[in-house]
Amino acid sequence: MQTVYLDYNATTSLDAEVREAMLPFLGKVWGNPSSVHHTGRQARALLDEGRERAAKVLGCKPSEIVFTSGGTESANLAVLGTARRLKAKGRHLITSSVEHPAVLQCCAYLARQEGFEVTYLPVNQEGMVSPASLAEAIRSDTILVSVMAANNEIGTIQPVPELGGICRERGVLFHTDAVQWLGKEPFGDVHQFNADLVSICAHKIHGPKGAGALFIRSPFQPDPILFGGSHENERRAGTENLAGIIGLVEAMERFIHPPVFNKERLAPLADRLLCLVDRLPGVQFVGSRRQRLTNTVSFLAPGCDSIALLAGLDMEGIRASSGSACSAGSLEPSHVIQALRLPEQASNSLVRFSLGRNSTLQEVEYVEETLPEVIRRARK
Fold this sequence. Notes:
The protein has 12 helices and 14 strands. The protein is of the alpha/beta class. The chain folds into 2 domains: 4-12 and 260-379, Aspartate Aminotransferase, domain 1 (Alpha-Beta Complex), CATH 3.90.1150.10; 16-255, 3-Layer(aba) Sandwich (Aspartate Aminotransferase, domain 2). It has a 7-stranded mixed sheet with strand order 2-8-7-6-5-3-4, with helices on both faces. A 3-stranded antiparallel sheet has the order 9-10-14. The longest helix has 21 residues, at 38-58. It is globular, with a radius of gyration of 21 Å.
């Protein structure tokens, strides 16, 4: 049976050359970068070199990069650390209704446990935040705005430079989760987002899992959220995962500029999937046709649920994903789809196809042949 992987927004395979770059740090270079002896100093020198390499890719100062365990920790450090550092100035946070749970759950926790107030910006039916709604929501006690660069579920690209510009004019810090953007969209340097904090993740760009970074525009420093050591200039306790960091840096150098997700090659394949969705009876594309990640095509199939659709696709060798979460056998509609204010009966039938560097025309043709029957069986 043919295997078709269409879940690149969830994770990518570890690139062979990235893996080769990591291997010395799983064997020969094994020292603790915080140790003062020669073995530790060797590791420290290579860690510092990695930070300088990452800064060159991002176009920032090495001191503005904190290495983390991935995108989730980067977002947690940005939101929790900033809110706690600035709480004396105000306790109002702004985010969007379609953010990744790594941001939404931090905001909910701060509101529930630490006395913060959160405004959730609405989105239009394409999943896009209006800059005017942000400008209206900012108050004198607003200390942080967090809006993602591109949505992981439906691929909608947010106008982050404009949003960040509004925040800068009003003296409010701006965080963007750029995990889905980097490697897919054109990138000059990190300052193009007009953001004070930017979250990065390795395994979305053919790097290793368990490695990420947070850009923090100097001189600001958020409060740490991990304690137990003075690592990362006292911003993130815990012995640095040197192998993972080198894998992240190698992937950044290879796959951010130019993006590893080649738009010219992937656009015709995504267009084929989009045309397929448009001609299937009762099936509805979700997201923006103009401002979306080229590799992402998401849709709803009313009369089905995501688990049945994904299981049916998987049985045919097609690996796709959904915004829905299954817990103890109960299906919960995607919060992104709910934010689009679509009919409730369709909200638990989201399927996301996300293409990548190994996707082929033959794979898309196989999906064209297979998807209609999978939907028919799921509805039955």
